[in-house]
Amino acid sequence: MLMKHSLIKLLTFRIVVLLLTTVTIGCSQKHSRLTNNSTHNSSSQNPSSHSASSQQNINPNRRQAIKQLDAFFQRWIGVPYAIGGLSRAGVDCSGWAKLAYANAFGKRLPRTTARQVTTGNWIARSNLQWGDLVFFKTGVKVRHVGIYIGNDQFMHASTSVGVTVSKLSNPYWHSRYWMARRHNF
Predict the structure, then answer these.
(1) Among 5, 27, 144, 183, which one carries the catalytic annotation?
(2) What is the 3-state secondary structure (H, E, C) of the chain?
(3) Which of 27, 31, 50, 93 is catalytic?
(4) Where does the NlpC/P60 domain start and stop, copy by copy (predicted)?
């Protein structure tokens, strides 16, 4: 009887681990409650208020796309995170990037971070511009994506606060930064 009980506990534990692993293969950042990576005041939630210097050398088409991205972001602030989500009821990081790119830039992105990271052109971190996709390795098989908005910040869908703005210099994001990709608009 004791052996049967131990076997059931072991199988239950393995199922839970398997489920948790499956759920976190997409976008994940459950760390944000502990690392305070997100910005939560109203001025930081207005991307255009931080972007004047980063927009100086941007062509007019890209500048218009920036305005559209700002407006799109304002409608999505705080929309909750939902793995696999693509609506205002819930969205994950790659889904939000896909929707934002389509709305602001008229650009179709693949649905997953694994596919998004293969699109566009590689950009050095030192050359980031508004609208570049920024990617992070948040686990062995877990990737995260956001949209760079200048002044060391990016928009993304956070598991703890939903669609938000965070800083690349936050220790968590800084240590997990992987690469950036640029699309021509």
Answers:
(1) 144
(2) CHHHHHHHHHHHHHHHHHHHHHHHCCCCCCCHHHHCCEECCCCCCCHHHHCCHHHCCCCHHHHHHHHHHHHHHHHHCCCCECCCCEECCEECHHHHHHHHHHHHHCCCCCCCHHHHCCCCEEECHHHCCCCCEEEEECCCCCEEEEEEEECCEEEEEECCCEEEEEECCCHHHHHHEEEEEECCC
(3) 93
(4) 63-184
